Amino acid sequence: MGKKDWKNTLSGVFDLIGEVLAVVYVVVFALLLIDAQWPFLSNVDWLYAVFKGIWMYGAFVIAAVVGLEAMVKRNFLLFLIFAALLAVCIIFIFFPGTYESLLNFLPSK
Q1: Is the N or the C terminus of the chain less surrounded, counting Cβ atoms within 10 Å?
Q2: How many CB atoms lie within 10 A of CB 65?
Q3: Where exactly are the transmembrane stretches of this chain (predicted)?
């Protein structure tokens, strides 16, 4: 298995994952819009919370998967840069105090 075969296989995997996630995201978004007019999900708290979580983070996850699909076709340096930027985004999203701690390291005027 050559280098190109490995990249094409991994790109295909990310492509399939991205397609499935995009369909799930659109279905969840549509159900939440319908629920805003005719409440039916709001009656099941845990399901509503799951759908709101998918709605909140779904677009970011899809962008990450599509970005990984694009970067796996490029050279390794671009893949590493994208992965590092993705890691920074994830850290700042899930650990917001990290951003404030990072700003405390910078000298103030």
Answers
A1: C
A2: 20
A3: 12-34, 46-68, 75-95
Q: Identify whether the C-beta of residue 58 lies closer than 8 Å to the C-beta of residue 21.
A: yes
Task: Determine the Cα–Cα distance for residues 60 and 66; give it in Å rounded to an integer.
Answer: 10
The HSE-up count of residue 106 (CA atoms within 13 Å, CB side) is 7
Name the pTM for this structure: 0.78
**For a pLDDT cut of 70, what percent of the chain falls above it?**
96
Rounded to 10 deg, the angle between the 45-72 and 76-94 helix axes is: 160
Q: Which amino acid type is present at position 9?
A: T
pLDDT digits (tens, 9 = 90+) for 1-41: 556 787 788 888 899 999 999 999 999 999 999 999 999 98
Identify the burial level of 14 via C-beta atoms within 10 angstroms of its C-beta, where 0-12 means exposed, 13-18 middle and 19 or more buried. buried
How many Å apart are CA 18 and CA 12, to the nearest integer? Answer: 10
